[in-house]
Design brief:
GO terms for molecular function: oxidoreductase activity. By secondary structure, the protein is α/β, with parallel strands linked by helices. The protein has one domain: NAD(P)-binding Rossmann-like Domain (Rossmann fold). It is 39% helix and 16% strand. The protein contains 8 helices and 10 strands. It has an 8-stranded mixed β-sheet with strand order 3-2-1-4-5-6-9-10, with helices on both faces. It has a two-stranded parallel ribbon with strand order 7-8. α7 links the parallel β5 and β6. α4 runs parallel beside α5. The longest helix is centred in the last third of the chain and has 24 residues. The protein is globular and about 55 Å long.
Length: 288
């Protein structure tokens, strides 16, 4: 039986940090997290966010399951090195990547064509579109294949009654592997009713396209053992959206913790029939 593990990139702040801490609390799976700097500090912060200082044993157990490695999605050599580190920690002969969260993102809003800056737009595509594409290239091989034995049913794979999220509900890891790439509703061409945000919209439309293409690859390589989806988390109160907090209704501006709970609800409820598409935090499909 092949043993599962989790990948989150990046995990240093925002949704990635909240997601990694949540998964440390709600599962007993090992996790590979990534950051571009202060790896020790990121690990310490994640362990602290997922445990209580009063429970030293819990802290030690969590720290032993968490691995933080350097990765910069604009530097392919670092993505490759991180994937090689993952293969050392979790040999493909005995392990498989069960949950992968590709979350890199940056936003340079442009309301008019004249506001588009070439270098800023190039950075947007490098991080938002090419970044996830490089993660697919180097980490995709660690997802299960058609012949991978997915019958590992111990608590590490499915969570236990004591493995609960902050709402008190147990998180059940899906029986198939899921690759999730962070997208956005503005990446929908059919749903573009307001215009603006040229490079960000286009970069997220690219995310939806490469996710669909990657899923078609997984259909052949992994069959029903693995699938890929894109995901719109809504407007989350992170540094990415800080410029727009005042323009968003209070009930539509989500905390990272709420966003993570909704994300995992969607992951847990998707089946292989839902593969290759973009889903939002309500579990509704975002049109292409």
């Amino acid at each position: 039986m092949s043993k599962p593990w989790i990948f989150v990139s990046p995990s240093s702040r925002g949704i990635g940090h909240a997601l990694t801490a949540h998964l440390l609390r709600s599962t007993t799976l090992p996790i590979l997290a990534t950051a571009r700097s202060d790896l020790a500090g990121v690990k310490e912060s994640l362990v602290a966010a997922s445990t209580t200082s009063a429970n030293r044993k819990s802290c030690e157990d969590t720290a032993s399951r968490l691995h933080v490695t350097y990765l910069d999605v604009t530097d392919e050599s670092s993505v490759r090195a991180a994937s090689e580190k993952a293969a050392e920690l979790f040999p493909p002969s005995s392990h498989h990547l069960r949950l992968a969260f590709a979350l890199p993102g940056i936003l340079h809003p442009e309301k008019q064509p004249r506001r588009i800056d070439y270098d800023a737009a190039l950075e947007t595509f490098k991080i938002n579109t090419l970044g996830p594409l490089m993660l697919m290239k180097w980490f995709g091989e660690l997802l299960p294949r058609k012949g991978t034995d997915m019958s590992y049913v111990k608590a590490q794979a499915r969570g236990g009654d004591s493995d609960t999220d902050t709402s008190g509900e147990p998180f059940r890891v899906p029986s198939h592997a899921t690759w999730l790439t962070n997208s956005a509703r503005v990446g929908s061409t059919g749903d573009n009713r307001l215009g603006g945000w040229y490079s960000y919209r286009a970069s997220k439309a690219g995310v939806n396209s490469i996710t669909k293409t990657f899923d078609l690859h997984l259909r052949t390589r992994s069959a029903e053992n693995a699938m890929a989806v894109a995901y719109h988390p809504g407007t989350v109160k992170t540094g990415l959206s800080s410029e727009f907090w005042e323009t968003v209704a209070e009930d539509k501006l989500f905390s990272p913790e709420f966003a993570v709970r909704k994300m995992l609800e969607v992951v847990a409820s998707r089946t292989v029939l839902d593969r290759g598409r973009c889903w939002d935090w309500k579990g509704e499909e975002v049109p292409p």
